[in-house]
Amino acid sequence: MSDNERRERWALVLGASSGFGAATAIALARDGCSIIGVHLDLRGSAASADQVRRTIEDAGVQVVFHNVNAADEAKRHAVVEDIQRRFAERREAGADPFIAVFLHSLAFGVTLSYISTDPARKEVSQRQIEMTADVMAHSMVYWVRDLFHAGLFGPGSRIFAMTSEGAVKVVPTYGPVSAAKAALESHCRQLALELIPHQITVNSIRAGVADTRASRAIPGHEELFQYARERNPGGRLTTPEDVAQAIVALASPRLYWMTGNTIGVDGGELMGSKQAGE
After folding, report:
1. Which of 2, 1, 40, 4 is nearest to 158 (CA)?
2. 199 backbone φψ class: left, alpha, beta (φ>0; ψ -120 to 50)
3. Per 3-state DSSP, what percentage of the chain is helix, strand, and coil (rounded to 5)?
């Protein structure tokens, strides 16, 4: 048994209460990881977060959820400090914890056109573009850096970020998110370069179109879903569980030399030949 296999595996999931984050947290828990979830849910969606946490608890692992804004610097520092404290307590109890998996799955951005000739349709503002990029892309760098300097990663840690076809394709009103996803993939490549000497890998996960709370917020999502079903060789949408199972597999210690990639988990959707409007 390797040193990593003897260590206590924890996963930190940003966006843990729904969609890809929730499914991945549950799958990792069932694979033996204790879970730290960060999510932002108000009264209307708090029940969903509670259900995810209970499902993780049923897997028999430790679970801690923080209902905070993951893009807020002070909140980020508080979560990192809480993890440090918890890990120190675990070490006093004889364990050797580390963050084996970190998933950045934040889907909070603005979907508005850059330029509109219709006075009734708003154009995206500078502040909205910057907020979208900060939440969905730049926060990845800040979280990884803080966790690294706090000594919470270690050899064998696996870092993942959720991206989409939107990083390389255009969809009406999706421009701010598309730019953020492209930046996120670039951040992952740079982090992979800087962290491979520490035996830490970083990869982007390009999920196919999935029916999630975030995707339903995209204007015209029904058309987008139908187009994805028709184009996907598998004849269906990607599910969060499809992606979660892939991340569990990619977190294997055997994949120590696989880093800096954008990995498709989409049933072949990207290679679909049907063109929009056909």
Report:
1. 4
2. left
3. 45, 15, 35
Assigned domain for 68 exists: yes
- Total domains, the chain: 1
Alpha-carbon distance of 59 to 61, in angstroms, equals 6
Report pLDDT digits (tens) over 182-227.
999 999 999 999 999 999 999 999 999 988 888 887 777 888 889 8
CB neighbour list of residue 5: distance below 8 Å, 6 or more residues apart: 253
Q: How far apart are CA 22 and CA 17, in angstroms?
A: 5
- 97-118 pLDDT, tens digit per residue, is 999 999 999 988 898 999 999 9
The residue behind tokens 């890809």 is: 20
Q: Locate tokens 């004889």: which residue?
A: 94
pLDDT digits (tens, 9 = 90+) for 113-151: 999 999 888 999 999 999 999 999 999 999 999 999 999
Token pair 């196919």 is at which residue? 208
DSSP 274: P
Question: Mapping DSSP to helix (H, G, I), strand (E, B) and coil, where does residue 90 land?
Answer: helix
Give the global pTM. 0.93
- Whichever domain contains 59, its CATH number is 3.40.50.720
